[in-house]
Amino acid sequence: MRGKTHIARELKRYIEFFHGARAEIFSVTEYMGPDGEDKLYEALSSFFDVTNSPISDPYDFDQCGVEGVGGFAIILSSDTVQSTKSMWSAHTKWHRKWMARKLEDELQAEVCFIQISVDSPKGEKYLSDLAAYRGMTLEESRDLIAEYQDHYVPIQMDQSEDQTPFIHLMNYNQKMVVNKMMRSFVGSQVCHFLSNLHPFQHTVYLARHGESDFNVEMRIGGDSGLSRRGEEFARRTAEFVKYVVCGHANDLVCVTLTAKDVPKLRDWIIELKRNIVATRDWADFGDASGGVVRRFMQLKRMQIGWAADFEDTPSTVQDLLRRLDGAKVVTLVFVGGDTSGAGTVPGRLWTSSLRRTIETAQFIEHPILPAGLMTDGKPYYQMRGRQFRNMDEVYAGEYDGLTEEEITKRAPNVISDRKRDKLGFRYPRGESYYDIIARLESVMSHLERIQQPILIISHQAVLRLMYGWLMHKTREDSVETQVPQHEVVRICFDGLGGGPVETRFPLGPTHLTDDGQSNL
Asked: What pLDDT was estimated at residue 199?
């Protein structure tokens, strides 16, 4: 009930994804019964037996950095009295000492206990939401925890457990006490990861940079600026940020109309409660780049001509058509859901250090929000951009700035070699996906701490791994993910144990799919 299962699952994924080490969760409640303790010991013994888990990837073996390469066993004891009947529950000082001796002496495993305590108002709200999600009342969940606490003896701070390795998380990532940390490299990284983890609801938005000049020329890498279409995507991204990322709306569609389409617009919209709204669903009128305007979506903004700023729409259809009269091309922004308070929800913005991502964020507004919206009581600088070199595109080395045709002339087998081992393929004097995983680890640990909505603008290779991590995919599956340009991906976490929920928003202009990099 305090997020232990969530933390166990995230810890397992972290170890596997960023360190290539084996990790497995052993739930104490699954090993109850007369022979349960012996069966759990046998399962742990089999897990740590290296003869049962041959290392097939030398890179992962080297990076693991632990003496016993059997992996990481995560023993999970739930907040139920039933679990305290097991010797593996770690619910008393004596049980913890017994477990440490058993694991260290007989299985030669390094042990660390993780204890979680929650007493903050936000933690209490999380307990309430989780109880409701599980069909319980808050009182029932508190009674369950209280019953467990009657049997549980917290890790002692009176020096009697000074020899016990442990991590005590108080209110998740607000405070941490570490004693006799694990000696391995991965062990120290686990400690850092746990210091950022939280179980609360949050939303992450991922966007590849707008089309760049190199994309138009089908060249890889480089540090070119945005093309004309890429700059238009940047303008639309700013509208999306205002209403969806930093607002309460749940959908946004940009529709481009030509001069001959404008007079027909009267058949598709109507005035309703001082707003102009769509009269029905439509996707084949104008160019919505794959998006669909839903019935009653509000027309909030418009752009007359290319490379022009977006502006508010008139309040009547007649005034709108009069304003659009004579325009050669028009882009209309339809917003779904609650459009009040646009731009007032505190949000964050991350980009790489390369021009094309920074320019994609150039039109996003940065108002100063009033004090009191954040816990520190200070004014908040909305969507203040932060640049990470660790989020730069994979470096193509000798092939940087070349087209696929130019690369195959130099090295005819490079495409087939990369397809054979996409994860491990390294460009000559360049990088592989393993290098990106290594430099993304600190970024993703930091991302786990954030609770505000955040927009991340980066590059295809980087976003493949970010998307894979957030969507609970393996590293091997992540590198096969397609990340189209001019599209925003929203990933929502309910904080209640459900999986991540993905929604895609094609903003345009022109839903791009081929930039010459699909094979590279």
From this structure: 85
